[in-house]
Fold these 4 entries.
Entry 1:
Amino acid sequence: MTEPKRLHVITWGCQMNVYDSGRMADVLAPVGYTPVPEPDGADMVILNTCHIRDKAAEKVFSELGRLRRLKEATGNRMILAVAGCVAQAEGQEILTRAPYVDIVLGPQTYHRLPEMVARATRAGGKVIETDFPPEDKFDHLPEASAPQGVTAFLTIQEGCDKFCSFCVVPYTRGAEQSRPAAAILREARHLLSQGAREITLLGQNVNAWHGEAPDGSTWGLGRLLRELAGIGTLLRLRYATSHPRDMDDDLIAAHGEIPGLMPFLHLPVQSGSDRILAAMNRKHTAETYRRVIDRLRDARPDIAFSSDFIVGHPGETEADFEATMALVRDVNFAQAFSFKYSPRPGTPAAGAGQQVPEADKDRRLQALQALLREQQARFSANCVGLDMPVLFTGTGRHPGQIVGRSPFLQPVHVSAGADLIGTESMVRIVAAHPNSLAGTLLQERRTA
Ligand code: SAH
Ligand code: SF4
Ligand code: F3S
C-alpha cells in the first residue's frame, strides 16, 4: 500500500486542459495521490496552464508566487508542477525564474508523471519533460478512475497542422494525431459505466480526426459518431473544436442521421473578411463558411451555432471588420466568443506589419460583442414556450431545484427531485435569463 497523498490541480485554458487535468489525476492515483479541492497543505500541486492569449506567462509566474508561499508553509514538502501549454512553450525559463518549481511537463508527457514525481522527490531533483515523446501517452494511461459525472470529455485527436497566423497551438500541442477508433470506443464504454450520459469528443481540430478503424481501414469523424451513437446507454454526443475546412459531406450528413448528436455546433470562423481570412492562413473564405452553415441547417434544421472571432488581426481595416459584422448578421449565432488579437511570440502574425492600434481593437470588440449578445439573448428568448429534452447534471442553487443542459448547452433550472440527475426529461421552457433558462418538468423519461 502506498501512503495516501493529497493532490490539487489548477486548470486554465480549454476543454482539452480540463480533460488532461483529469487524466493527470488518474495517472497519479496508483501511486497514492487523491484529488483535494484546495491547494493548502497538499502534497502536490499541478498548475495546468494555457498560452493562447495575453500575458499568459506573466499570469503563470504570479500564480506561482502564491503557490510558493503555500509550499513553504508545508516545509517545502509540497511538489510543485507546471503543466500545459505555457510549460511546453517556456520550459527551462520556468525553472530559471521560479526555482522552487519541481517539475515542468508538456501536454504530451503526463503519462510519465509517476516517474517524474519519483525523480523530483530525490533531494533537489528538478525535472523538465517538454519533448514530444515517441510513445503515445494514451497507450500508457490507466483507465479513468475519477468519474467525470453525467457529462464527460473524451480526447480523440490532439495537435494541429493548420498554423493559423496568430495561434500558438501547433507549437505547444505538436502535430495532428488521431487516436484509433477501438481505443476511443473502449474509453467511451468505460465513461458510460461510470455514469456518463453525454460525451463531448475533444480535439484541437476534432473534425480532422481520421483514425484507424477496427478492420484496419480509416474512419472519419462522421463514421466514428455513428459507432458511438450505437453503444450502451449513451444519450448525447457533441464534438469540439472544429475547423470549417474539415466539415466533410459524411460529417454533415451525420448531423441529419444521429438524433443523439446535439444540434449545437461550435464552428470558429475568426473573421468575415476574405482578405483577413487569407492573412490568417485559414484557407477558406467567408462564403465557404456560410455554405457549410447552410448545408448543416439543411441536414438538421434545428441546429444552432457558436463561433470564435478575433478583432484587430494585423492588417484589419474598418471595411474588414464590417465584413465580420455582416457575417454575424447573416449566420445569427446562438452564442460566441470574441477576442482582441493578441500577438503571440513566435507566431507569424506577431512579427507582421500593420498592427492595429489598441483603441481600434477595443472599439471593434465592443461593437461585435454587443451584436453577439443581442443574438444570444434573442436565441434564448425564442426558447421560451418550447419543449426540449434536458439532461439533468446536478442540484441547483435553491432547495428542490435541479439543473440540466438543453440541447444547445444552456443551463436549465427545474423544480424536481435529485433522483432525476443522470436522466433526460422533456421540459417546457418558461423563462430566459442572461445565462440560463428556467423550465417546468413535462414528463419523466427515465433513461438511466
Ligand atoms: N482549434 C480551434 C481554436 C483554438 S484556440 C480553431 O481552430 O478554431 C481558441 C480561440 O482562441 C481561437 O478560435 C481564436 O479565436 C482565439 N485565439 C487564438 N489565438 C489568438 C490570439 N493570438 N489572439 C486572440 N485570440 C486568439
Ligand atoms: Fe490554432 Fe488555427 Fe490550429 Fe485552431 S486551426 S488550433 S486556431 S492554428
Ligand atoms: Fe490554451 Fe493550450 Fe488549450 S494554449 S487553449 S491550453 S491547447
Entry 2:
Amino acid sequence: MPAETKLWNRVEQTAREVFGTFGFGEIRLPIFEPTELFARSIGLDTEIVAKEMYSFEDYDTSELLELLESRKAALTWVDSPVTQPFGPLGAGAQAIFQPFSSVIGNVVRLGLDAFQKGRIPRTPDNERLLADLKDGIGTFVGSLNSRSLSENRQAVNSLKGLVGQLRFGDSLCLRPEATASVCRAYIEHGMHALAQPVKLYYMGPMFRRERPQKGRYRQFYQIGAEVLETVRKEVASGEWLVASAKDAATDAEVIEMVMAYFARLGLEGVQLDINSIGHSAPACRRGYVEKLKAALEKVKDKLGADSQRRIETNPLRVLDSKLESEQAIIEKLPRIGDHLCADCAKHHAEVKRQLELRGVAYQENWRLVRGLDYYMRTTFEITARGLGSQNAVCGGGRYDGLVELLGGPPTKGIGFAIGEDRVILSLQEAGKGGAAQGRDVYIAWMGEKTLATAIRAARDLRQAGFRVELPPVEQKFGKALGQADKLGARYALILGEDEVASGQWTVKTLADGTQGKYSEAGLLEFLRKQKS
Ligand code: HAM
C-alpha cells in the first residue's frame, strides 16, 4: 500500500546509492530460470531444492492434449478388485490387465509422435524412456498369465514409474534466490572479459515454498550484491582455489558495504556473525565433516528426527538446529575452526583483520554454516531487532568455483542477499515506517468561473514538484477544508471569484489556521521557501 511503498522505495533507493558508491552496477535478472540451474548450484540435499522450489514443466498444453490425457490415464490406472492374491492368475490376468497395456500403448504411440515432431524435449532420457516403455509392454503382456496378482501389480507400477519420468517440457522454476542467476548471466554475457572484478547488485521477488509466518513468506524480496572475479589462465592452471590476501579484502569490503547500508537506513540492533567453513578438501572441510559425522553418530539417540536425518544428508546443517534439547549436545561437537587447512585459516584471520581495519564490529559464530551448498571459506549472517525468530536480515558468503560448476571459467565469488521484507518490518517496528502520501496543496475552488484558474494553478504547482489535490467538482468551503485536512494537506489554496479577479490568491496554512495573500508568482516562492 502507498504508505508502505514509500518505505520500500527508500530502502531500495538507499541500496542503489550506497552500492553505487562502492562501484556496483545493477543487473536485472529473469524471474524464471531452468530448474537445473538451482539444483546444481544450491545442491540437491538442501531444503530449498528438495522441498521449496516452485517448478513446472513448460509446454503448450493444446499441442499435447491427447498425450497428457494418456499419461494421466496411465498414472491413475488401478485394477479392479480380485480375490485371488497368490499364484499365477492364468487366463484371468488378460481380463484384468489388458486395459493397462492398451493405456500404456497410447502413451508410447503419442509420445513417439510428439518426440519426432519436437513437441516434447528430444532428450536422450526421453528417447530411452519411450524405448523402454515399448519393450516393457511386450514383456508385460507376454508374462501376464504366469504371474501372480502382486507380481503383475509390481510390473504395472514399474511401467507407471517410466511414464512418470517422461519430460513433456523443459523444467522451469520461479527463482528461489539470485546468486545462481547472476553466475549464469556472467557466463552467458562473457563478463570474464570485462575489467575484473565485476560488481553487480539486484533486487526483486524470490520464491520458496516455506511455511509462512512473520518475516517468512513464499514470495519475498531480496536486495543482493555479488563480486565475481575470473582467475587469469596462468593462475588457473595451478591451484587457483588457493586463497589470496586480495580475497580477504574483498570479503571485508562487501561486508563493510552492507553494514554501511544498514547504518544509512537506521536499522536497529544490527549484529554481524561471521565464520569460515573452509574448502572442500579432505584436509579441510571434508575431513571435518567426517569427524562431525562420527561425533554425531555417537549422540544420535539424543537428537531429534530432523538432525538424525541430517547426519546422513547434510551433517553441517545439524549445527543450525534451534531445538532447545540439542543445544548442549551441539556445544560439545568438534568445531570447524579447529580443522581448517592452513590456507583457509589464514584467509579467515585476514578477513577478521580487514574488518577491524574498517571498524566493522563482528561476532564469531562457529555454528554458522548456511543452507546452500555453494559456499566455501567466509560465511556471514546479519540479524536485526524487532523480528522474532526470523531475525536474519542478510546472509552471504564466498563461493569460488560456482561459475566453473555452471560451465564458466575459474572464477571467485562473494556476495550476500538482504531480506527486504524483514528490513522493512524492523524499520516499522522501530517507528521508522513511512507516512501516508499527503498533499502539499489542496485547491479549494469556488464558482465555475474559477475552474480554469484552478486547473492552471494545479498544473503549474505540479510542474514545480508540489503534490496537489484538485477536487473535480466544486465544494462548499467547509467541506473543502475538511477534505484537505483528511488528506493531510499542508496548505489550502482558496480560489474564489474575488481572488481570480484581483490576482491575489488566499493561502491558508492548515496546521495553525494562518492566512496570507499572494500573487501567482509569490505563491510559488512562498511554497518553495517553506519546503526548503
Ligand atoms: P539466504 O540466506 O537463503 O541466502 O537468503 C538471504 C536472506 O533472504 C535471508 O537472510 C532472509 O533475510 C531472506 N529470506 C530468505 N528466505 C525468506 C523468506 N521465505 N521470507 C522472507 N525472507 C527470506 C541467499 O539467498 C543467497 N543467495 C545469498 C548470497 C548471495 N550468497 C552469496 N551471494
Entry 3:
Amino acid sequence: MNARAGVAILGSTGSIGISTLDVLRRHADRFRIVALTAQRDVETLLEQCLTCAPDYAVMADETAAEHLRGRLRAAGRSVEVLAGATELERVAALPEVAQVMAAIVGAAGLLPTLAAARAGKRVLLANKEALVMAGPLFMTAVREHGAELLPIDSEHNAVFQCLPPEFATAGLERCGVRRIVLTGSGGPFRTTPLEQLPEVTPDQACAHPNWRMGRKISVDSATMMNKGLEVIEAHWLFGAPPDRIEAVVHPQSVIHSMVEYQDGSVLAQLGHPDMRTPIAHALAWPRRMASGVAFLDFARLATLEFQPPDFARFPALRLAFAALAAGGTAPAILNAANEVAVQAFLEQRIRFTAIAAVVEQTLERVSGRAAETLAVILDDDARARAAAGEQVAARAVEG
Ligand code: NAD
Ligand code: MG
C-alpha cells in the first residue's frame, strides 16, 4: 500500500478549511491530516481535532491555544497544541507534510504560505491575498524551491484546467493563449439601485447569491474587489499581462472561468458553485477524485448570461486594475487598505460605499515602491493600514 500523503490545513476552521476536511474525509485511505490551524475559534478546532486526530493543532492566538490544550487534555487526546504565528510557518514546512492548503484569510496568510513554498510543498492556494501582496517574491520562491502551486480560487483553478500542461514552462504566448476570462457573479448588489448602496448592511453584503464563504471575501465579492484581487492573482499565477485578463459578470456562476486561444477556441470549466470541486482537483492532481459535489443537470441549466462589469457600480475593480498597472507595492497597499475598510464595514463603522473610497484615498496617500523584499512589502502593508485607519475614522458613521 502507498503511504498516505500528509496534509496541513492553514485556516481549517474557515469556509475553505471546512470544505477541505469534507473532501479529505472521503479519501482517508489517501491522505493523512498532519496539522490543523486557526486564529482563535477553539470550539471548531476542538471538534476537528476530535474527528480528524491531527498530530498538531496551531492557534495564532495564545490564550485560545491554552483553552484548546485544556479541552483536549480533558478529552484524553494527545494532539500537540502550538501557539503563535511562527508555529503556523513551522507546521507548513514539516517534513511529513506533502500538501499545504493555504486557506487563511488576508495578509496573515502570507508568511505561512510562503514558508510552505520555501519548503517545496504542493501549495493549494486559496489565500489570494498572499499572491496579491507578494506576487514576484512568492512565484520566485515556488520556482527556486521546487514547490507545486495549484490554485484553489475557483476562477484560477478553472483557468488552470483549461490550459495545456506545458503552459508553466512554455508560457501563455507559445501556448497560443489570447485571453484569460475571469467570471464573477456580480455579487448580491448587481442590480441594487445605486442610491441604495450606501445603506446596505453587512448581512446583506454577506448574503452571496451563489457561494457560501467567509465574511471578508463575501464583502469583497459584493464590491467586486474580489474580482480585482483575482485579476492580480491571475497575472502572477499565469504570467499574463493585464491586457490579456478580462473580468466578465456571469450571474449564474456555472462557468468558473475561460481561456481563449488564437484560433478562436474558448475552453471553459463548468460545475456547481461548490469549492469542493477545485479542492479535490488540486489534492488529486494530475488525477481526479470524487469531491461530494453534485453533477450538473444540463436540462436544468436554463440560461448562461454574460455582461461587462459596471465600473461605476464597482469602483474597487477599477482600483485593482490601476494598482496592478502601477506595480511594485501598489497591490499590497490596495490589499491592506481593503482589509482595513472591509473590517470597518463589517463592524458597521463605515458605509458599504466608503470601502472603495478608503482604498482609493489610501492608494493616493501612500506611495508605492519596488516590491523587492518581504520587509519592504510588510512595511508598505503597515503604512497602508495606518493611512486607511485614518480614512476610516474620517468617514465613521454616527454610532
Ligand atoms: P474564513 O474567514 O471562513 O476562514 C479564515 C480562516 O483563517 C479561519 O480558519 C481563521 O481562523 C483563519 N485566520 C484568520 N485570521 C487569521 C490569523 N490572523 N492568523 C491565523 N489564522 C487566521 O475565510 P474563507 O472564506 O475560508 O477564505 C479563506 C481564503 O480563501 C481567503 O483568502 C479567500 O479569499 C480565499 N477563497 C475563499 C473562497 C470561499 O469560497 N470561501 C473561495 C475562493 C478563495
Ligand atoms: Mg474566486
Entry 4:
Amino acid sequence: MSIHIAAEVGEVAERVLLPGDPVRAKIIAENFLEGVRQYTAIRNIYGFTGKYRGVPVSVQATGMGVPSISIYLHELIHVYGAKKLIRVGTCGGMNENVHLRDVIIAQGSSTDSSIVKQVFGGAVNFSLLADFDLLSKAVDAAKNLNVPVKVGNVICADLFYNDYDDPNGTFGDGKNTLNEKLRRYGVIAVEMESAALYLHAAAAQVQALAIFTVSDNLLTKELCTPEERQSSFNDMIKIALETVIQ
Ligand code: HPA
C-alpha cells in the first residue's frame, strides 16, 4: 500500500491507463476489461486491474492537473512497478482544424508548469516527449481501427481558467496573445497532465504516451456536454488498450 493507492504490490499491472476522472476509470474497467478487481478507492480516486485480450492492464484515475497526476505517477512507477503508462483524457483544441471528439496524440508536451524547472533548476529546457515506440504503435492501432488521429505538440497548462486567454480580460491589448503564439508555433491542443507524465517517465526511464479526445475548442468555443465528455471516448480507449498490451 502506498499513501494514495490502497493496492498491495502486485495488484497493479505494469501496463496502466490513466484517466483523470474516477468515474471514467470505472467505465473503462467495466466496459473494456475482463475479470476486473478494484484495488483502491482512497479519496474516491479509483483504480482497477483486469485483463484486455488476456493481458493484465490497470486503469488508475489521477485527478486533474500536474500536482495530482504526479502523486499517482510516482506511486505507480516507484511502488507498483508500472512500465507502460498511457494517459487517456480530454483536451481543448487550439485551432480550427481540431474538431470536437477528434483523437489527439501528444508527440511533445510544452508546459507553463514549473515542474521542468524544479527538476533541472532552469539550466535546461528539457523536451517532454512521448515514448516513440508507444507513439508509433498507437498510430498503427488507430489506422487498424480506422480512427483518424492528429499527432503533435500540446500545451500542458496549470490553469484551466486563465484570464490571460480572455479576449475581454485584463491583460495587454485584449488579444489572446499567448495562445495565438502557441497556435502559430503548431501547438494543436491544451490539457493539464501530459508534462508530468512525460517528465516522470523520463526520470524513471519507463514508457509513456498521452492520448486525448477533444472536448472543447478554445478558438471556435465549441463545447461537448458533460455526458459526451464522460461517455464518447471509446475510440481513444481502444487505441490506448491496443497499444498498451503490445
Ligand atoms: N483547457 C485545459 N485542459 C483541458 C481543456 C481546456 O480547454 N479541455 C479539456 N482539458
